[in-house]
Amino acid sequence: MIQLDINNDLESLQLKASLIIRDMQFSHENAQKLKELILAENMDTVDFIREFNAIVRTSKSHHWKIAILLNNLKERYIHELELISWTPIILICLGLILLLFLIKKFKLKKVIKKSIRKFFKISLNLIERIGALFAYFVPLVSIYAAYVPRLIGSYPYLNFIFPEFLRDSVDFYIRYPWVFNYIYFFGMMYGVMLFKKPKPRFIRFHLVRGLMLFAFQGIPDACVKAFQSSESLTQDQIVSTNLCLFAINLSWILPCIYQAITHTYPRSSFIRDAVEINVGRDKDDGFKWWNR
């Protein structure tokens, strides 16, 4: 809008009006009127302001602005719409219609629901296996950290079973042993045994079993330190002892990893009872001891 000012002449008002409407859009009729106003030579300033404000005021409420906006959107996205290949879209729609027809015709709804339930059951089983497998990662890292750095110089073939991610984990374990020795141990104690997390009992079973292996690792580790401090043993004897203890520890943990992958439990009633007692009894699922 232009305010009335007696000090403004017609030319300055026309210049001001042209600046105001520079970024505005008008209908063809109003645009012609504005053009005539701005190009007018002999016109009273009061009449100019009144007519200009009237045109601008009416233009703001006209519905043609919607059409202009839609036209701008069309021009902006028309190129993207032209690039769309409608053939695959039509084929997908026809396929969905055909699928719905077949489901209704042959009463496949129950079959589909059964398949979905089976899929989720398989997925949950797979998640349990992966979760149980990760339960032995920390014990495996502790075994590697205790023996492999001492053995790899004498037995280079150990590099074949020492991948890069295990090297990084062992390096982290050696630099920050308290993270594993305290946070992992007490985290498992409280999370699994006290709060019964995670919910699948199979995962908790292997988490507790991995924790027990991690705790038992302290026994052979103490033996290694005792052997290393002995002056009566040669370097070859110390290396051989480390290799023997490394093999013994692997013989403990590899069957656990196999049982986690195959979703099975240990056959030994002694081992299973020892783990189940630490896992505890679940109150909400009516758990009964496995051999009762």
Q: Would you give an account of this structure?
A:
The protein is mostly helical and 292 residues long. The chain folds into three domains: 10-79, no CATH class; 84-116, no CATH class; 135-279, no CATH class. The chain has 13 helices and no strands. α9 packs antiparallel against α10 (201-216). The chain is elongated and about 120 Å long. The N and C termini lie far apart (91 Å). The mean pLDDT is 79. Belongs to the Tic20 family. Pfam families: TIC20 (PF16166).
Radius of gyration, taken over Cα atoms and rounded to an integer in Å: 40 Å
Number of strands: 0
- The SSE order reads HHHHHHHHHHHHH
- Approximately what portion of the residues adopt beta-strand conformation? under 5%
- What would you call the shape? elongated
Number of domains: 3
Oligomer: single chain
Structural class: mainly alpha
**Helix content range:** over 70%
Largest sheet properties: none
Q: Helical region count?
A: 13
* Average pLDDT rating: 79
In the predicted model, the low-confidence regions spanning at least 5 consecutive residues are: none
Distance between the termini: 91 Å
Topology of this protein?
Elements: H1 10-20, H2 28-39, H3 45-60, H4 64-83, H5 86-106, H6 109-134, H7 137-151, H8 164-175, H9 177-194, H10 201-216, H11 218-229, H12 235-262, H13 269-279
Concise synopsis of the structure shown:
With 292 residues, the protein is mainly α. The chain has 13 helices and no strands.
Descriptive labels:
292 residues; mainly alpha; 13 helices; plastid; chloroplast
